[in-house]
Amino acid sequence: MFARWTFASLRSMPLDRRQLKSSAISLCEYDTETQDLTLTFTNGRTYDLSGVPPDLFEGLCNASSAGSYFNTYLRGQY
Length: 78
Known about the structure:
This protein is α+β, with helices and mostly antiparallel strands. It is 29% helix and 28% strand.
């Protein structure tokens, strides 16, 4: 049998995936339950960060420069 998915169950999934319009970071994937953040850079490298608070994830997604935000608030801290 196949699993039945509903739109409501998909909305409750903990993964928040966002494409960024950035010259440095192309994709952010954030697990709202574990607070794990995976960043995919435009050069193909990925970074896995743990324990990132939701406000820092939102800040990254809304930053005018995602690369600068990453360097200032996330890099080497998580």
